[in-house]
Amino acid sequence: HADAAMFTAKRNGRNRYQFYSKEIEARLLIKKHLENAVANQGENHGFEVHYQPKIDVIHNRIIGVEALVRWRNQDNKIINPIQFIPLAEETGLIIPLGELILKQACEQAYQWETSGHGIGVAVNISLVQFEHKDFFNTVTQIIEQSKISPHLIELEITESVLAKDTEKARKLILKLQEFGVKVALDDFGTGYSSLAYIKDFTFDVLKIDQSFVKNTLENKKDQAIIFAIIQMAKGLDLKLVAEGVETKEHSDFLLNLGCNVMQGYYYSKPVIAKEIDKLLQEFSAVAPAKN
Ligand code: C2E
Ligand code: MG
Ligand code: MG
Ligand code: MG
């Protein structure tokens, strides 16, 4: 028995070791690429921003897009952010990477604006970025340099940002909005979800998390939650976006409840900017209001 136990321990240990070494290898590779991307200003080293449209299904028009970063590796394989954003956050590399993403998104937004499709572009912001002392200056500088109208840029933050230092976050959000950008609360309902946040903060947009949308057709609880979020948003005059709309049934259900702006695979996956150009021909486009 002792031998068997020893054998099991050794085997597990070895597997674990192999698992760790594989993981460490992958992390080092990603870290190296992040560092290269960051060191070579102007070159993106395979980091590219894709865009997913947000559609007002009543008017059949694109009201904006969400910028979502991808990494195209040496084999031309697309690596999703879940595989490198957490690492970038841990190592602090999210700061320069975030700048690179915001720059790319603002430059693209400016191209859309000057070509007559002034759609809003939403950019995800990590807690680490939001908390960085230079965050406000960086954001405003990038926006000014790209010449994009600030009201066309929307920053998506999550509830984690609000929980950390609520008063500081509240002030920073107001300052950003005074500068002219919009602020959206992403993944609503999954985080700390204090209703006080909704009351005390002045969000421009609330994004219903996809986890509620996913099961909404079968799960009565998810239905009730979505219903409540929609009623609340109406009462507070908050714009709503439903994430993760994958089917016509999802879309119909949400529309019936009074949510008409949708984002999800049913309408389009995140795609490169050129594909958005095509979609802009299909759907009509409309710019968000300045206020
Ligand atoms: P998120 O901001 O909540 O973005 C929505 C995610 O849902 C995206 O995943 C999008 O591709 C995916 N999605 C959209 N429609 C559907 C659908 O119908 N069904 C399903 N199952 N999924 C859908 P993605 O691009 O893999 O990004 C994952 C997360 O990584 C994002 O969640 C965001 O938190 C983070 N992220 C992505 N890009 C950036 C970035 O540029 N900067 C930062 N800081 N974080 C980013
Ligand atoms: Mg988002
Ligand atoms: Mg989200
Ligand atoms: Mg999410």
Number of helices: 12
Coarse structural class: alpha/beta
State Rg.
21 Å
pLDDT averaged residue by residue: 88
Judging from the principal axes of the Cα atoms, what is the shape? globular
Helix content: 40-55%
The termini sit apart by 73 Å
| Attached small molecules | ligand C2E, magnesium ion
Largest sheet: 10 strands, mixed
Spans of 5+ residues with little confidence (pLDDT < 50)? none
List how many beta strands DSSP finds: 10
What is the H/E order?
HEEEHHEHHEHHEHEHHEHEHE
Q: How much strand content do the residues show? A: 15-25%
Task: Please give a handful of descriptors for the protein shown.
binds ligand C2E; binds magnesium ion; single chain
In brief:
The chain is built from twelve helices and ten strands. It has helices spanning 2-39, 85-91, 94-114, 127-131, 135-146, 159-164, 166-179, 195-200, 210-214, 220-236, 248-257, 273-282, and strands at 47-56, 61-72, 78-79, 120-124, 153-157, 182-188, 205-208, 239-242, 261-262, 284-285. The mean pLDDT is 88.
Give an account of the 3D structure.
This protein has helices spanning 2-39, 85-91, 94-114, 127-131, 135-146, 159-164, 166-179, 195-200, 210-214, 220-236, 248-257, 273-282; strands at 47-56, 61-72, 78-79, 120-124, 153-157, 182-188, 205-208, 239-242, 261-262, 284-285. It has 291 residues and is an alpha/beta fold. Helix 3 runs parallel beside helix 5. The model has no long low-confidence stretch (mean pLDDT 88).
